[in-house]
Amino acid sequence: MKLYSKKAVVKALCFVCLCSSMQALADGRVVDKVYHPYVQPLEREFEYRYFYQRQADHPDNNTMGQKLGYGFSVAERAALEIYVIADRISPEDYKLTGYELELRWMLTEQGQYSADWGMLFELERQNNQDNYEFTTGLLMEKEFGPTSLTLNALAVYEWGQTLDAEWEGEFRAQYRYRWLPAVQPAIELYAGENYKGAGPSLMGVHKFDKQEQLKWELAVIVAIDNDTVDRTLRFALEYEF
User: Fold this and answer.
1) By the number of CB atoms within 10 A of the CB, which of 11, 146, 158, 232 ranks highest?
2) Where are the domains of the chain?
3) Would you say 72 and 82 are in contact if contact means Cβ atoms under 8 Å apart?
């Protein structure tokens, strides 16, 4: 396997600093999955995500969203996933709002360097609005004894019929204690333009055999300095086979 040079790792670190200093999504919906930089050969998976946002000044005007995806590896270090997205803004019903194509690329082998590196590429289309969003950035994870630190530094480009074309950004972090495979508590942090949030999360994995396993995540993120979103609940299930 080709080894990545130290110079490439230094460039990656510089890019993380650049992305984390950029502005982030203005709508406050920064809270989402914290991505790990790993891809398993021949992996296939179904994934379900749910989020609930409570508005600070309008507790009866809440937002909920769901994503259903199917993913599979396209190479030894690359995996592709396709999502269908539905949103509900109270008091309206759920509507199919978009589609998303996601590519994860594992840059380094696990344990090859002091930290593990990957990249994320996403293209989302908003249904019936002709709006698009392209996201790319670096994924990093480093172990400290029984704990792991995961960082996502993402750059976002939006354009379309009702959007001004512009670059934005996101930063996500997760510090996880690997207590048991099925129970792993963590703290998560999300930062963006006019939004900073943090809160506890809990996750785990149950293995059925060598390839088949079920992962779950639950987090409650409380806004620190945002006037629109008070708190966000996120939940995810991922079945790999």
Assistant:
1) 232
2) 6-240
3) no
46 Rama class: left (phi>0) / alpha (psi -120 to 50) / beta: beta
Residue 23 has pLDDT above 60, yes or no: no
Partnered with residue 101 across adjacent β-strands are 82, 123
**Residues 208-218: pLDDT tens digits?**
988 899 999 99
**How crowded is residue 10: how many other Cβ atoms within 10 Å of its Cβ?**
10
Fold classification of 6-240 is Porin (2.40.160)
In terms of average pLDDT, the best of 26-40, 57-71, 152-166 is 152-166
Three-state SS for the chain is CCCCCHHHHHHHHHHHHHHHCCCCCCCCCCCCCCCCCCCCCCCEEEEEEEEEEEECCCCCCCEEEEEEEEEEEEECCEEEEEEEEEEEECCCCCEEEEEEEEEEEECCCCCCCCCEEEEEEEEEEECCCCEEEEEEEEEEEEEECCEEEEEEEEEEEEEECCCCCEEEEEEEEEEEECCECCEEEEEEEEEECCEEEEEEEEEEEEECCCCCEEEEEEEEEEECCCCCEEEEEEEEEEEEC
